[in-house]
Amino acid sequence: xxxxxxxxxxxxxxxxxxxxxxxxxxxxxxxxxxxxxxxxxxxxxxxxxxxxxxxxxxxxxxxxxxxxxxxxxxxxxxxxxxxxxxxxxxxxxxxxxxxxxxxxxxxxxxxxxxxxxxxxxxxxxxxxxxxxxxxxxxxxxxxxxxxxxxxxxxxxxxxxxxxxxxxxxxxxxxxxxxxxxxxxxxxxxxxxxxxxxxxxxxxxxxxxxxxxxxxxxxxxxxxxxxxxxxxxxxxxxxxxxxxxxxxxxxxxxxxxxxxxxxxxxxxxxxxxxxxxxxxxxxxxxxxxxxxxxxxxxxxxxxxxxxxxxxxxxxxxxxxxxxxxxxxxxxxxxxxxxxxxxxxxxxxxxxxxxxxxxxxxxxxxxxxxxxxxxxxxxxxxxxxxxxxxxxxxxxxxxxxxxxxxxxxxxxxxxxxxxxxxxxxxxxxxxxxxxxxxxxxxxxxxxxxxxxxxxxxxxxxxxxxxxxxxxxxxxxxxxxxxxxxxxxxxxxxxxxxxxxxxxxxxxxxxxxxxxxxxxxxxxxxxxxxxxxxxxxxxxxxxxxxxxxxxxxxxxxxxxxxxxxxxxxxxxxxxxxxxxxxxxxxxxxxxxxxxxxxxxxxxxxxxxxxxxxxxxxxxxxxxxxxxxxxxxxxxxxxxxxxxxxxxxxxxxxxxxxxxxxxxxxxxxxxxxxxxxxxxxxxxxxxxxxxxxxxxxxxxxxxxxxxxxxxxxxxxxxxxxxxxxxxxxxxxxxxxxxxxxxxxxxxxxxxxxx
Length: 750
Known about the structure:
- By secondary structure, the protein is mainly alpha-helical.
- It has a domain at about 575-750.
- About 55% of the residues lie in helices and about 0% in strands.
- It has 40 helices and no strands.
- It has helices at about 15-20, 45-55, 65-70, 75-80, 100-105, 115-120, 125-130, 150-155, 175-180, 190-195, 200-205, 225-230, 250-255, 275-280, 300-305, 325-330, 340-345, 350-355, 375-380, 385-390, 400-410, 425-435, 450-460, 470, 475-485, 495, 500-510, 525-535, 545, 550-555, 560-575, 580-595, 595-600, 610-625, 640-660, 665-670, 670-675, 680, 685-715, 715-750.
């Protein structure tokens, strides 16, 4: 979930952004079915760490952070590593930090624009930037725009970078060829000497035929180059020497690519049967440029109208009366009926085909067919306006006809006679298709509960057209919001202040919470319903409600943000939990881990009836098994994935503590004694774990011995080694706890 998408309603205030900008501490989250008003104290997770977590998830969060965080090197480095463009919001001093700028341009080359001038002249940084985005060559120092390796890397990535290369490199054959191979039109930036280079120009026109325009005049006379150009884009013929317009092979290749080019062909070739056929097959409208005798050629005209029915306009009059040709034309484009002979405008089959394709073609039909019930109904299927504009007037107030029409297309109601807009059966048929058509119903029917409810069921916003009496009617509005919660926004103010109706509407659609009476914005019952549907909306709640324990747990079910924040609090609270609350906490922990990408891979549905210690053991076992195979940071994981893994590792370690803590609730319930008997019950498993621990011990002893010898020779190295040993010791402690939890889980579930 990105930082910018934390709110589904873009107009809602971004409480998190406000808090970050102010540099304040934020309260954190929990869960429950029955709502409690207990609140947690502020998290010991500092605002700085929260900002750091946010920018790791979405670097753009830096934009909303306070100035102190935008000047924090670790935070900015994390932000630009996730999204290089966030360098633009970093403090000016950090835009001159080489490591930060290098990280930014490595992620997104466009970040170079935000670097200081001195770093825009740094060869390594600019090379990294143009490798990602060639166009950022424009921001490089002038000296580097003349660096052959950098410019070649830029144009290889994006040929348009050639525009920013130095004049000397625009004359470099390899660089220009790399550019025009990607975009032939870039020949415009090449040195004149290369515009006359046959190999370069051929590569350019092969990629984009219109590049012929930039070629030297001598190459516009080169037949092979012109042929290659028109094959790629027929309009390249306009940039060739005029005599090629009479070259049959070249013109045939051009019209085969784009039939419109027949317009540019020599008059002699506009009378060439094969060329014209190729042209109209590609673009039917090209028929207008064919010689007169070919516009009377039945095969050519049939090919043209099949491709574009409007080409019938350019056909000879004799063919406009050809039934097969006209039928093909109107089937492709109903409006082609306008160009048909009058005799065919009265042909029922042809007119029916035309209006089925485009109902407005009824305009060109003979008057007798505008009164044909079947034809008018066919036209109304896709063009309801013809009832008002083109159909015989008798249809407008014909009840049976209009009823049949609105059953096909409810929009016909808008153009029906006023008397029929007051017909309940007709209006009901229309609004069931499209609730918004209630707008065109008679006033009396806009106050009809059955009709309005049918409209609302189709589209909640249709309530805006209902009579005010219904919008004030409690019984009706309760039914309306049950049908579509969105109808609530158009309810009368008295209804918006009705708790039952408002709560029903919010249950149907949490977004209408924005329209409830202001008094309900502090009602925890409403927030419970809203947060069940969208956990992130809890950020919009008043602070005392946002800090409610159970609401935060509910939010964590659908909000990754709240899941992670609660998990951070859980790390400090797990060991202090009483046995009575342990089961509920275990339920949440399972859910919280599932909200991460890796957590979802680990868990399926978990039986809600499992005892609390089984749930903890299951979590620990799964996390331990996954984490022990996922600690290698060289697996190509993104920063976000590594962050999630760190969260999962922390959760696994805390669960491990639960299974072994001498004062923990599991030990108090006799779990310790059962655990001690584990080795006897499962000697194979225990032996495997012991063997692993023994191998680890031997390995560490060998490392320690070697390091001691090195430390005696180098005191500075000794200090460094000590820090490494401390880290290794912490890792082993975590592994030991995970092994214990995994063994416990195996014992429970075997």
